[in-house]
Specification:
This protein is an alpha+beta fold. It has two domains: about 120 residues, Enolase-like, domain 1, CATH 3.30.390; about 50 residues, no CATH class. It contains six helices and five strands. Helix 1 packs across helix 2.
Length: about 210
């Protein structure tokens, strides 16, 4: 199997979540910047011997005017990113990036956007932690809930089944069956009548750590 598949999978297992921690002050929305993506990816890509090479396939540029009359350069780039492993195997990710700038940075921004989303989709980077640290949240102290309904008396078959399950969990199915049969005379817990339950329960109480 080509190394690139195993290397990409290894990177995915090590990359943590990248949240939307940066703020766009003009349009007031949160986003994940390309710097955050590079900072998260670079160590794991080095560790797993993966590198990426970009190739611009198509480019389009036009000049636009803002509502205030300022001129902006708008660039759209179609970029192929090839991820290589140390054996020369590779996979391609082709994405479109858009960028806008008042000077000479529109293509740079378009490439940054293209690279960011190529990485997000190739490595399936999560946007938030899927397994939060248990120390991150401390629930308030609580008491067992009190039930307003009367406690229902268990059915004999249900109780017998619980007894048998406890025995099986403690001693194994074969030994539990051997223990039940001479006491009750019944091989099936569903056949045990109420009058026999007490003797079975007394047997259970004689053993420790049956739950």
């Amino acid at each position: 199997m080509p190394n690139i598949y195993a290397a990409i999978s290894a990177c995915m297992s090590e990359i943590g979540a990248i949240g939307k921690d940066q703020q766009n002050t003009q349009q007031n929305f949160k986003y994940r910047g390309v710097d955050a993506v590079m900072n998260a990816l670079q160590p794991v890509m080095v560790k797993n011997h993966v590198f990426v090479v970009p190739q611009v396939l198509e480019q389009a540029r036009e000049e636009r005017t803002t509502a205030k009359g300022a001129h902006l350069l708008y660039s759209i780039l179609k970029v192929k990113y090839t991820f290589f492993a140390d054996d020369g195997s590779s996979i391609d990710s082709i994405v479109v990036g858009e960028g806008m700038d008042s000077a000479d940075k529109s293509s740079n921004k378009a490439m940054a956007a293209a690279f960011k989303y190529a990485c997000f989709q190739t490595f399936c980077i999560p946007t938030e932690e899927t397994h939060p640290d248990p120390d991150a949240d401390t629930p308030p102290q609580s008491q067992p809930a009190k039930s307003n309904s009367p406690t229902a008396k268990p059915k004999s078959h249900d109780t017998a089944h619980q007894v048998a399950f406890a025995l099986i969990k403690r001693f194994g199915e074969k030994q539990a069956s051997e223990m039940l049969f001479p006491i009750t005379g019944y091989k099936s817990t569903k056949e045990i009548p109420d009058k026999e339950l007490k003797r079975v329960l007394d047997l259970i109480n004689g053993f420790e750590e049956i739950a």
